[in-house]
Amino acid sequence: MKNTVLTFKQAKAQGKKLSMLTAYDYSMAKIIDESGIHGILIGDSLGMVIQGEEDTLSVTVDEIIYHTKAVKRGAKNALIVSDMPFLSYHTSIENAIYNAGRMVKEGGAHAVKLEGGANVLAQVRGIVAAQIPVMGHLGLTPQSVNAFGGFKVQGKSEEAAKQLIADAVALEEAGAFAIVLEGIPAKVAELITKKVSIPTIGIGAGKECDGQILVYQDMLGMFDNFVPKFVKQYANLGNTMKEAIGMYIHEVDKGDFPEEKHTFKIDDEQLKKLY
Ligand code: KIV
């Protein structure tokens, strides 16, 4: 079944949980989509898990578009959400609309996601007015890593939690269709989830959110530089892959691969002429 922003809206109304994962390429998007996921995020997390950077700040609009195109070809049913990278929506409303528009027009995204609350409301309104659905993102927003002094859990004081609640309400009023809540206390996420009528998608925000999102390399055990507390590893594909690659290297070394069944033939008549 095709997932749209209406699927997200209805899920909240019906108390049905939403599941999302990140993806950055065709093959993985196809597997994730065929598994029945509701939404795929082409996250700027690609800066870390694809490019090996220490944070997400260097990711560009062109890179997100490149990966969105690949994901779009593989995912037939999931809602495709493209992340707006750092500085692609901060400088002006026009710039934000233009970059969001490129993600839809060139990448094929159904929606965009951007980080922030009160500071980005004008951008959210502008993008929504351009008929592009916007997913908000509050809490431990990775693009604020330098302002936060590291990847630190947010919303732990009364003041900070109140600000998050106010930001979530304001994002809904500005027209966002969903909000990612990242790295905040579960009780604060629960309060926000009850307060807004759009779905909250949690990552490190407890189980009372309307849905969950994870980076696929984290949940499949393919990225072990740093495993955050909120990640559950559903598999250890990193080890499985190393074992398989080790077997391949061993068989190549021994001359056991390729076998007869992996090779192509030429007619003897043709072959004779080559000698
Ligand atoms: O970039 C990303 O992958 C994200 C999710 C972790 C929410 O923003």
Can you describe this structure in just a few lines?
The chain is an alpha/beta fold and 275 residues long.
The CATH homologous superfamily of the largest domain corresponds to Phosphoenolpyruvate-binding domains
Which shape, going by the Cα principal axes? elongated
Strand residues, percent = 5-15%
Mean pLDDT: 98
Classify the helix fraction into a percent range. Answer: 40-55%
Please give the count of helices: 12
Number of domains: 2
Order of helices and strands: HEHEHHEHEHEHHEHEEHHH
Query: What structural class do the secondary elements suggest?
Result: alpha/beta
Largest sheet: 8 strands, parallel, barrel
The CATH first-level class of the largest domain comes to: Alpha Beta
Present as ligands are: 3-methyl-2-oxobutanoic acid
Report on this model:
- This protein is an alpha/beta fold.
- It folds into two domains: 5-236, Phosphoenolpyruvate-binding domains (TIM Barrel, Alpha-Beta Barrel); 240-272, no CATH class.
- It contains twelve helices and eight strands.
- It has an eight-stranded parallel β-barrel, surrounded by seven helices.
- β6 (178-182), α9 (186-195) and β7 form a beta-alpha-beta unit.
- α2 (26-34) packs across α4 (61-74), α4 packs parallel to α5 and α5 (93-107) crosses α6 (121-129).
- The protein is elongated and about 80 Å long.
- The termini are far apart.
- 3-methyl-2-oxobutanoic acid binds at residues 22, 41, 43-45, 83, 180, 182, 203, 213, 215.
